[in-house]
Design goal:
This protein has 300 residues and is of the alpha/beta class. It has helices at 64-73, 81-97, 114-123, 135-139, 179-189, 206-211, 228-237, 254-260, 265-277, and strands at residues 18-22, 47-50, 56-58, 104-108, 127-131, 149-150, 164-170, 190-201, 224-225, 241-253, 284-297. The chain is 30% helix and 24% strand. Zinc ion (ZN) is lined by residues 9, 11-12, 16, 50, 52-53, 55.
C-alpha cells in the first residue's frame, strides 16, 4: 500500500478541505481482489469528510488503475441473497422504464447479466446491453444474455453516443474511483431526456448511522460514500435533473444479515450455525437498512 494517492472531493473540486472521519486499517494484503457481497474483512482506507458538501470519501487511496486491477481478478459469488437483490432491483427498473416510449437499456457493472435478462422479459425492453469488467462474472452469463454483455471497463467507444433511454447501475457508484468521469460517460451514452437509475449505499441510512465507523459500509471497496444530498449535488453538477432520491426497502435473508454484522467471526459463525440448524437462516426480512435509489433525467 505504498502508492496511495491523495484525492479531492468530486463534488466541490480541488482546494476544499476536509476533516478526518475514521483512520485507515490496511494491515494484511489485498491479494484476492474485490468481490461484491463477500464477507467484510475490515480492511479500509482512511475516510475523510468534505467541509464543503459533507461527502465522506476514502483518502488517500490506491490509484484508479490499481483499484480496477483488483476488480478484474475478483471472483463472482453466487449466493441466496442474490435472488432477493434481483427482485428488488427489478421493481426499480419497472418504475424507471415506465413512460419511456423506447426502451433501450444499458446496465453498467451487470455481473452475469441475470438482472438484464429478467428485465428484458418482464418489461419488454427493446434492446439491452451490459458492461462488466470481471471476466468470471461474464463467463457465468446465461447464453440468452451473454451476446449482450461487453466484458470491458465502462469507457468511450463501446456504443454510439446518445444511444440509450436508460443507463442504470446497481451497487456500483460507491466503488467508482472517478465518479465525475463516470457520470460524463453516462451522460454521453444517454439520449437527451433519457434516464439514469442508480441504487447503492446511503451512508446516512439507518444501519451505517447506528453502527457508525464500524458499519460494513466502511470497507476498502467503497471509495465514495454518498448520501441523498451529495448524490443530488454531483448529478446537478453534471446537468441532470433529479427526479427523486429515496431510501430503498430491500429483502434480506437472516443468514446474510448475520454474515455482514460487525461481530467477531467466531460469534457470527456460531449464530449462523444455530439459526441455520433451526431453519431460520433463510427467513426473509424486509427493511430500509442501507440503500438509496436515485432517478434522474438528462435534459432534453
Ligand atoms: Zn465536497
Amino acid at each position: 500500500m505504498a502508492n496511495l494517492k491523495d484525492v479531492t472531493c468530486p463534488v466541490c473540486g480541488p482546494g476544499m478541505s476536509y476533516t478526518v472521519f475514521s483512520p485507515a486499517h490496511l494491515t494484511g494484503a489485498v491479494s484476492q481482489g474485490f468481490t461484491a457481497r463477500k464477507t467484510p474483512d475490515k480492511l479500509k482506507f482512511r475516510y475523510v469528510r468534505c467541509r464543503g458538501c459533507g461527502l465522506i470519501y476514502a483518502n488517500p487511496v490506491l490509484p484508479p488503475e490499481s483499484l480496477s486491477a483488483l476488480y478484474n481478478v475478483g471472483g463472482f459469488i453466487q449466493e441466496p441473497q442474490l435472488e432477493n437483490m434481483l427482485s428488488d432491483y427489478l421493481a426499480q427498473i419497472g418504475r424507471a422504464t415506465t413512460g419511456l416510449a423506447c426502451k433501450r437499456v444499458l446496465e453498467v457493472g451487470c455481473a452475469n447479466g441475470e438482472l438484464l435478462l429478467r428485465a428484458r422479459e418482464a418489461f419488454g425492453l427493446d434492446e439491452v446491453w451490459g458492461v462488466e469488467p470481471c471476466a468470471e462474472a461474464y463467463e457465468a452469463a446465461d447464453m440468452r444474455i451473454k451476446p449482450h454483455i461487453l466484458a470491458d471497463i465502462f469507457r468511450e467507444g463501446l456504443f454510439p453516443p446518445g444511444h440509450f433511454d436508460l443507463v442504470m447501475f446497481f451497487q456500483v457508484f460507491d466503488h467508482i474511483p472517478a465518479p465525475n468521469e463516470f457520470l460524463n460517460l453516462v451522460a454521453h451514452y444517454l439520449r437527451p431526456g433519457g434516464r439514469l437509475l442508480a441504487l447503492h449505499h446511503n451512508i446516512r441510512a439507518p444501519m451505517p448511522v447506528l453502527l457508525g465507523r464500524h458499519a460494513p459500509t466502511f470497507n476498502i471497496q467503497h471509495v465514495f460514500l454518498w448520501d441523498k444530498h451529495t448524490m443530488r449535488r454531483i448529478l446537478e453538477n453534471h446537468g441532470f435533473t433529479v427526479e427523486g432520491i429515496h431510501g430503498c426497502w430491500n429483502s434480506y435473508y437472516v443468514d446474510h444479515v448475520l454474515r455482514m454484522l460487525p461481530l467477531p467471526r467466531i460469534v457470527k459463525n456460531t449464530l449462523r450455525k444455530a439459526l441455520g440448524g433451526l431453519g431460520l437462516g433463510n427467513l426473509r426480512l424486509r427493511a430500509y437498512v442501507e440503500n438509496m435509489v436515485t432517478l434522474a433525467t438528462k435534459p432534453a
